[in-house]
Structure formats: C-alpha cells, structure tokens
Amino acid sequence: MGLSGQLIDVAFVGDISFQGRHMDRPSDVVMASAAPVFKACDLVIANLEGPLADRGQPAPNKCTLRGSPLWAAVLKKSGITLVSLANNHVMDFGPEGLLDSLDALKAAGLSAVGAGRNYSEAAAPELLTLNGIRLAVFARSAVIVSSPCYAGEKHAGVAFFEPETLIQEVRNVRSQVDLVLLVLHWGLEDYSWPSPSQVRMSETLFNAGVDLILGHHPHVLQAMRLKNRRLVSFSMGNFLFDEFEWSFQGRDGRPHTSLSRLSRSNRKSGVLRISCTAAGVESADFLPMKIETDGTAQVDPDPGRKRAFERLGRPLSWPAYALLWKSYALIKEWSLRISPLLGGKLTWQRLKKVRPHHFKGVFQAIKRSLRIATENTTNPYE
pLDDT of 195-233, one tens digit each? Predict the structure, then answer.
C-alpha cells in the first residue's frame, strides 16, 4: 500500500463543453487562468461533455455538443490529466464521435474513463500510482436519455451507473489500491442541492469502499461534504461552457431553433483541490471560477464566493433535509418547467389559441415535476 505520510493533490472541475464560438477554434487562452493551479497538482480530473470529433451524425431531436479533436492537446497543455466521458453528450455524434474522441485523447497523452468501444472498456477503472499512492478511478453516468448512449459487450458507449454492479467492481479492486475515486454524472439540472436519495447513495458508496465521489451534470454548483476522510462533491457546475443556438423538432412536428443561454448560476464554478494520503482525504480547498461573456474560464476574485460555497453544504446535516428538499424541489419545478408553459398575460387573443394539446402539455409537466419532487424519477425528459 501507499507510503505513510505521502501526499497527493487532486484537482477536480465540472463540465467542459466546446460547443459554441470555440468549437473549432482551439486555444489555451480559454482556461489559462486555472492552468497554474492544475499544473501544481498530481492529478486533474474534468468531465468532457461532448465528443472531440469531426465525424459522425448528430443525434436527432437533441441538443448536441461537439468540439474539434485538436482540443485534446489544449486540455493536456492546460494541465488536465484525466477526463470522464461518462455523460449524456459524449455519444451525441454516435460511435464515430466517441472513437475519434478516444483516439484524440490518447494521442494527446490524456487518460479517459467512463466510455469505450464496449462495456468492459467503458467500465474499467484507470489505475494510477502517484507519489507511491495507488488509485483506481471509475466513471459512470446515471443520466437517462432516449438516444443511443450506453455501452454493451458488442457496441461502444458510456458506462451506465448501476449501483450494485459498481459496488462489486469497487470491492474487486479495493484490496489492490489505496484510494478509489468515482467520477459520477448525476443529479438534476439547475438544482442547487442534491436530492436526499443522492445523499443516501453517497453514504452507500462510501461504505462500499469509495473514497471520493466527484459529481457533475446539474450545471450549477452544489454542496461538498468531507466526513471521516471521505469526500463527495455533488456538482462543480460548468467549468467551461458557451451559449449557442440549436435546432430540434417540436411537439407540433415542425423544426424549431432554441438559444442555449447561461444564467448567472450556470457561469459560477470552481476548482476543488483535494489533498489525500493513502488513508483518505486530508483537506479540500475551493478556488472560485466563473465563465466570462467572452467564453473563457477565469478565477473569480469575489471574496464572498468561498463563503457561499461553504454554506451550500450546511443543510445536508439537518434532520429535516429531506422535507426541506421536497419543498425546494416543488418551487424549482414550478419555475423550471410549469411556469414557462403558463407564462405571459392571459389576453383574449392568447385564450383563443388554446387547444387541447396545450392542456395535455401542462398536465404532463405537472405530473413529471411531482415525480421529481417525490424522488420517483430524476429524469425530467421522460
């Protein structure tokens, strides 16, 4: 096992996407602000949200993300050393897009976990030895999508998060390593707090032998919790994302165009720097970051950001957290999914345009939101 007293520094950032103005214009300027922090760490992990590819057909009726394969070298130059591909966008351009991504990352000298040419490759952990400490890094996606995404024994894709299967895989490798890291795509988009079931799942994974859970997908910052030398970061938000237009087929069967915008919360992120020994996590430090209007990730000098991040974690230990979260979820669902369907002043001209399918859409949205708020689903797209 690892040498007693040896330390390693692990840096973690959330979602990285190159869709938008930087898609085919690789430049190390976009994340240069964080590069000195990255290069001072032994391991730097990010979620690569979308393929690095020039080939493949875009998944129909979906917001697809992509970046040039040349971005792989920029990630490496910036100090990132390992990316998770276990997410709901890396298969946006089919198997060709994923395979091109794997080739580009390998050529740049980057490690990749969570997706592969088959399930065995996608599910396999990356085994590393840093400063005499041995690590296993797993990556999984818990996000359910209807487009082809998940790996099988004979086809490429993403490793889906099946708790019982993953727990057995962790146990199989636990005796061979000092630390087990799980990079996990989970949670609800634009929610500032994880669901009670996520909190319970983190405890289950810790009891199974996982030391660090590094989460992403909500596109906003969520709580971090360090307890008994084990750490869970539920979401680190968008490290690098941009605004862009995308097309889709609406319920009326006609093509539509939508603008993917970034809210103030979507622009806030950070670098989580975690110091570990072979026995577990010693400490964690949060460096606030923000996405500027020019699409670059910059260190945020606002002194209140660290305090705000610390406050996110406090409610997790409250006895009534589950009840408070359900109340929060009902309010959030109203603002995210129901209110937009009812928005605007009810004029006679608008009322004349109301049709039965409008009532059906509102009813379905309410039903879906109630299922989310009661934790019967985490999929707002079902």
Answer: 999 999 999 999 999 999 999 999 999 999 999 999 999
Across residues 152-180, what is the average pLDDT?
97
Q: Which of 237, 242, 173, 235 is nearest to 202 (CA)?
A: 235
Q: Which domains does the chain have, with CATH numbers?
A: 8-317 (3.60.21.10), 321-373 (no CATH)
CA distance 235 to 193: 9
Tokens of 327: 């109340």
Confidence (pLDDT) at 119: 97
pTM above threshold 0.90? yes
Burial zone of 250 (CB within 10 Å; 0-12 exposed, 13-18 middle, 19+ buried)? exposed
Q: What percent of the chain has pLDDT over 90?
A: 78
pLDDT for res 210: 98
What is the pLDDT at residue 234? 98
Rounding to the nearest 10 degrees, give the CA dihedral for residues 222, 141, 241, 372: -50
Token pair of 382 as six digits: 């079902």
Count of CA atoms in the C-beta half-sphere (13 A) of 174: 15
Beta strands in 26-132 (DSSP E): 43-48, 82-84, 111-113, 115-116, 126-130
Token look-up 């307890």 returns 227
Provide the pLDDT confidence category of residue 104 given band limits of 50, 70 and 90. Answer: very high
As a whole number of angstroms, the distance between CA 372 and CA 382 comes to 11
> What are the DSSP calls for 278-317, one per residue?
TTEEEEEEEEEEEE-TTS-EEE---THHHHHHHHHHGGGG
Please check the confidence at residue 3 and state whether its pLDDT lies above 60: no
pLDDT for the residue 258: 74
Can you tell me the distance from the alpha carbon of 331 to that of 101, in angstroms, rounded to the nearest whole number? 39
Determine the length of the chain: 382
Residue 340 tokens read as 């937009």
User: CB–CB of 122/167 below 8 Å?
Assistant: no
* Whole-number Å distance between alpha carbons of 144 and 153: 19
Torsion angle in degrees (nearest 10) through CA of 91, 97, 103, 107? -100
